[in-house]
Amino acid sequence: MSSPSRLLKRFFSVESMIRPSPRIGEPLPPTREVYHRQFQLTWPCAIESVLVSLIGSIDTMMVGGIGPAAIAAVGITNQPKFILLAMIFSLNAGVTAIVARRRGQQDQEGANGCLRQSLILSVSIALIMSSIGILFARPILIFSGAEADTIDDAVGYFQILMISIVFMAISLTINAAQRGAGNTKISMKTNIVANIFNVIFNYLLINGIWFFPELGVRGAAWATVIGNIVGCGMSIASLCHKSNFLDIYSRASWKFDRKTLSSLFSISGSAMVEQVFMRIGFFTYAKIVASLGTIAFATHQICMNIINISFSFGDGLSVAASSLVGQSLGAKRPDLAIIYGKTGQRMAFVVSTGLVFFFILGRKMLMTLFTEDAEVIALGSLIILIIACTTHFQTAGVVFSGCLRGAGDTRFVALVSFISIAIIRPLLSWVLCFPVGWGLIGAWIGLWADQAMRMTLNMIRFKNGRWTKIEL
After folding, report:
1. In a domain, 1, yes or no
2. How many structural domains does the chain have?
3. Domain carrying residue 189
4. DSSP code for 212
5. Are 52 and 312 in contact (CB under 8 A)?
6. Of 221, 247, 277, 361, which is most buried with the most CB atoms under 10 A?
7. What is the largest CA-CA distance in the chain?
8. Cβ neighbours of 32 (radius 10 Å)
9. What is the pTM of this model?
10. CA dihedral 318, 321, 325, 331 (to 10 degrees)
C-alpha cells in the first residue's frame, strides 16, 4: 500500500481519532459502522437542508422575474424575520440537546415531557413575535435599510409572512425534538413537502396563473404561509405513531417541571445570547450592504442563496453530529461523542472540497439562474470566487458548533458568535466597503474572515474536550 493511501486510511480511521485516555474500557465500534450510523442520520438532514435551500433559491428566482427591486424587497425582510424568530431558534437548541440526552438514557417520558413544555413556550413566543412584526413592519424595515423603491413591497411581504410564524414555530420545535431523537427523516419529509407547496403557489400567485390573482411579491409571501401550514400539519402527524420515541400518546405531562425547565433555560439562555449576537451582526452586515444600493444588494441576496448551498451541507452534517454527540453523552460514552464529532468533520471536508470546484467552475451559470442583469452577473461571479474560498471554513465551523451545542456547551458558542459575527464581520466589512472603497467585494471578505475565525475558535474548544463533561 502506498504512503498516501496509508495516510488517507489513517485520516478516516476511528482508531486514529481518539487517544487511549478518553476511552472508557469498552471496545470502539468498527470504522465502517461509525460512518454508516453517521451517514444514516446525516443524509436526510443534508438532503433536507440542501433541497430547502434550493427551493428557497427558486423562490428568489421567481421573484427575480419581477426585477432587482423585488429581489431586494424580499431580501431586506430576512434579518428582521430571523430576529423575531431568534427566541424560538434558541429554545429549539435546548430541545434537540435534551431530547438527545434522554434518548441516550432511554427516558422516553422525559423526552416527551420536554417536547410538550417546549411547544407551549414556542407557541406563546410566536404569538408575541407575530403581533410585533405585523404592527411595526414599516419602521422595522425602514431601519433595516429598505429603499424608497422597495419599502412598500417589503412591508406587504413581511406582514403576510408574520401570519405563518405560529405554524412555523410548532413545526420547528417538533422537528428539533425529532432530530434529537434521531428521527431525521421526519424533518426531511416535512420540510421538503412544505417547500414544494411553497414553490407551486409561488408560480400560481406571483404570476396570476389560472384563476389565481396576480399578487407579485405578496404572492410569494402567501405561498410561504401555505407551505408553513402544510409543514406544521405534517410535523404534528409525525407524533401520531405509538411506535415512535416521541408521540402524543405518551403519559408525559404538559405541566412545567423544574428539572426540564432548568435544563432548557440553561442551554436555551446561552443559545438566546448567541442568537442576539448573531442577529445583531447579520442585521448590521445586511444594513451595510443595503446602503450600497439596489443592484449591490440584489447581487448580495443572490450570492447569499448560493453560499447557502455550502451551509446546507454543513448544517445537515451538524444536525447529525449534534444528535449523535448528545445521545453518546447520555449513554455515558464521551469517547463515542468525540469520534462522531470527528467523523462529521471528515465528511464535511470531502463535501466542501467538491463544492469548491463546483463554485469556481459554475459561477456564471449559477448567477444566470437568478437574473439576466449583466451588471449583477458580473459582480456576482466575483463574489462566488470568495464563496469558494469560504466553504471549507463554513462547513467545518458549522459541524464543530453543532457538536458543542449537542453537548450543551452553548455559552462558548455564544461567545464565539459575539466576537466573530457581532464584531469582526460588520466592523471589517464596513472598513473594506467604505474607507477602503471595495464595496460589495469588501463586505464578502468580511464574511470570509468571520467564517474562518468561528471555525478556528470552535475547533480549539472541541479539541480540549471540556464539553464532554457537561451534565444536563
Report:
1. no
2. 1
3. 28-469
4. S
5. yes
6. 221
7. 68
8. 9
9. 0.74
10. 140
Nine-digit cell at 344? Answer: 462529521
Q: Scan for cell 449591490, then name that residue.
A: 296
Q: Residue 367 domain-assigned? A: yes
Candidates 420, 384, 387, 422; CA nearest to 282 is: 422
pLDDT for residue 1? 46
Enter the C-alpha cell of residue 109. Answer: 417520558
Residue 93 lies in a domain: yes
Q: What is the pLDDT of residue 17?
A: 77
The C-alpha cell of 466 is what? 471540556
H or E, element range at 273: helix 258-290
Confidence at residue 435, expressed as pLDDT on a 0 to 100 scale: 93
Residue 442: CB partners within 8 Å, gap ≥ 6?
429, 431, 432, 433, 436
For 86-105, b where at least 16 C-beta lie within 10 A, e where not — what string? bbbbbbbbbbbbbbbbbbbb
Reduced 3-state DSSP string for 58-111: HHHHHHHCCCHHHHHHHHCCHHHHHHHCHHHHHHHHHHHHHHHHHHHCCCHHHH
| CA separation for the pair 125, 33 (Å, rounded) | 41
- Residue 444 is predicted with a pLDDT of 96
Alpha carbon distances (Å) from 425 to 103, 108, 282, 433, 459: 37, 42, 8, 12, 19
Q: Is residue 229 part of a domain?
A: yes
User: Alpha-carbon torsion 280, 282, 283, 288, what sign?
Assistant: positive
DSSP assignment string, 348-413: HHHHHHHHHHHHHHTHHHHHHTT---HHHHHHHHHHHHHHHHHHHHHHHHHHHHHHHHHHT-HHHH
C-alpha span between 51 and 67 (Å, rounded): 24
